[in-house]
Here is the input.
Amino acid sequence: MKNYIEILLDAGEEETYARITSSFVDTVYQFPFEEKNGLCHNKFRITVKNMNTKKYKIFYFYGSFNDFRIGKTNMSATDIYEAFNCLLMEVSGEYDSFEEFCQEFNYDDDSRKSEKVYKALKKNQNKMLEILSRDELDKLQNYVEKYLERSWAV
Here is the structure.
């Protein structure tokens, strides 16, 4: 089952219209790049589409162990906002080098595992920038954070 949210932002002269869709993919036994720990997580496909240009990209999000434990395979609107916020935070960083990334997130800069995480992050960054500008991403992140602040206050 696919669920989605749509966000329309007035960006002055132009509006940014994005659709974020989620669908359950599979149950996995660990997060990518993590040591095996026996905890299961559900994997979701997150499709981000710029409705102005019709361009879209696919990303993956892993739910919590607790969501897996209770059999949650559908994402609510708030879940989709939270997943999209995680993705926006991941791609919003501007790291000029692997070393700078490691310093920012306290990764070992002499580790292949750290390098894999960095390359995956850069890949997602580049994918997102193919469909949305840096300015649009900043506005979307601001909107999503405000939405989540309101939903958590309830």
